[in-house]
């Protein structure tokens, strides 16, 4: 195992949160791959920290569904199954539809401006961005909607759910047609939020998550059935 940027955790961030942030980014970027072992000692040496924050960070990432901790085997990057995809997108459909409805009622001008910036970045990334860039741009937009609700509980839950999604979404780029559809769906959701139409925002978000689930499952099936020459 080799971290892409070893010894880069600043002294002020050598906490479990700082270590979790670095490892999360390594998983999202694909540098740490599914099934890859995450030995505490190696990680601690690579990041220039003690083993305690590494151990705590691994527990945090386990709660997000990114890491699997097995007795006598230690930690590994979690492999994602089709059942995982179905479950996580089912959760997203419920939680994000609710968040969109609430955000339509509570969002401020500042929230809308932040979403407009996030949407503009998403459109810039479009098809030309890497899978990782597309996933992070999408993540930023969705997180801002949960932030706009003002509910710290919802923000925490959504952060965990979205982190799991990004770990898989970062593995494949959207083709032009799918990217254009996702951008249009985001744009329509944003307009519903600006109009403070909670019912429309809720419905559009549920439809968006459902179409994302269908594409994720199709990609999973294709990658699992791909013939390696």
Can you put this structure into words, describing what you see?
The protein is mainly alpha-helical and 229 residues long. It has two domains: 11-77, Winged helix-like DNA-binding domain superfamily/Winged helix DNA-binding domain (Arc Repressor Mutant, subunit A); 82-224, GntR ligand-binding domain-like (Four Helix Bundle (Hemerythrin (Met), subunit A)), CATH 1.20.120.530. It is 69% helix and 3% strand. It has helices at 16-29, 40-47, 51-63, 82-106, 109-125, 131-148, 152-169, 176-194, 198-224, and strands at 67-70, 74-77. The protein has a two-stranded antiparallel ribbon with strand order 1-2. Strand 1 (67-70) and strand 2 form a beta hairpin. It is globular. The two termini are 26 Å apart. The mean pLDDT is 88. This is DNA-binding transcriptional regulator, GntR family. It comes from Pseudonocardia ammonioxydans. GO terms for molecular function: DNA binding; DNA-binding transcription factor activity. Residues 176-203 form a coiled coil. Pfam families: FCD, GntR.
């Amino acid at each position: 195992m080799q971290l892409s940027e070893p010894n880069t955790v600043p002294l002020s961030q050598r906490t479990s949160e700082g270590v979790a942030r670095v490892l999360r980014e390594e998983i999202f970027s694909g540098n740490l791959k599914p099934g890859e072992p995450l030995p505490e000692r190696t990680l601690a040496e690579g990041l220039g920290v003690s083993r305690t924050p590494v151990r705590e960070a691994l527990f945090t990432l386990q709660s997000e569904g990114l890491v699997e901790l097995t007795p006598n085997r230690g930690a590994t990057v979690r492999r994602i199954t089709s059942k995982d995809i179905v479950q996580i997108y089912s959760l997203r459909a419920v939680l994000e539809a609710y968040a969109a409805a609430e955000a339509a009622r509570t969002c401020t001008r500042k929230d809308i401006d932040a979403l407009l910036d996030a949407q503009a970045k998403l459109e810039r990334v479009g098809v030309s961005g890497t899978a990782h860039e597309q996933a992070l741009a999408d993540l930023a937009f969705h997180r801002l909607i949960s932030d706009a609700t003002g509910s710290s509980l919802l923000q925490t839950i959504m952060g965990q759910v979205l982190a799991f999604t990004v770990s898989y979404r970062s593995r494949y780029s959207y083709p032009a047609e799918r990217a254009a559809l996702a951008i249009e769906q985001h744009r329509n959701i944003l307009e519903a939020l600006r109009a403070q139409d909670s019912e429309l925002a809720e419905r559009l978000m549920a439809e968006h998550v459902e179409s994302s689930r269908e594409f994720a499952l199709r990609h999973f099936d294709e990658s699992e059935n791909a013939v390696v020459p």
